[in-house]
Design goal:
By secondary structure, the chain is of the alpha/beta class. Helices cover 41% and strands 11% of the residues. It has 6 helices and 4 strands, in the order ααβαβαββαα. The longest helix is centred in the middle third of the chain and has 17 residues, at 70-86. The mean pLDDT is 89.
Length: 171
């Protein structure tokens, strides 16, 4: 049995499975865009899969999450190549990097942030630190806002939300 949100605190978004659309997922997203103000798509981390390529055709913003490690940042470079190819068809596509699972005050974290700042794309000021609240939210079938005592994680998510809205020209 999978995790499911508590009825008293339902998951605050609609979840729609679009895996069957495969490389034509952009058509489904265009259809769904008439019903929603915002659509968040979690794509497989593969530059060879047709799914991310299709999604980028109709996206306003691509958020590239990365852990603060050289191996992950090398993966970011591959993803940027995919984004550059998508920009041929979607010239207004914005790119931003989100550092995930950051361990504060480590040299690796500092070095990773410096490398990301040199890449073409916006580096979010908001970062997600290494916290148990993120894993607990999955177990609860909700978000960090459903996790008791997860104030810091909640603040990180709120800060990211504000930055995303600003990047998209929203209030």
């Amino acid at each position: 049995m999978g995790a499911q949100a508590d009825d008293a605190k339902p998951f605050p978004a609609s979840v729609v499975g679009l895996a069957a659309a495969g490389g034509k997922i952009h058509r489904e997203l265009q259809r769904l865009s008439e019903q929603y103000d915002f659509i968040i798509v979690d794509c497989p981390p593969s530059v060879t899969s047709p799914v991310p390529q299709s999604v980028l055709l109709v996206s306003d913003l691509v958020i590239i999450p990365t852990r603060p490690s050289l191996a992950d940042i090398w993966g970011v470079k591959d993803t940027l190549g995919l984004v550059d190819r998508a920009k041929v068809f979607n010239e207004n596509l914005k790119v931003a990097f989100l550092v995930n699972a950051l361990t504060p005050r480590t040299q690796l974290g500092k070095d990773s942030l410096e490398v990301l700042e040199t890449m073409h794309g916006h580096l979010f000021k908001a970062v997600f630190r290494q916290r148990q609240a993120y894993a607990q939210s999955l177990v609860l079938g909700g978000t960090v806002f459903n996790v008791p005592g997860a104030k810091e994680a909640q603040q990180e998510v709120t800060a990211l939300g504000k930055e995303v809205l600003a990047l998209l020209g929203q209030k």
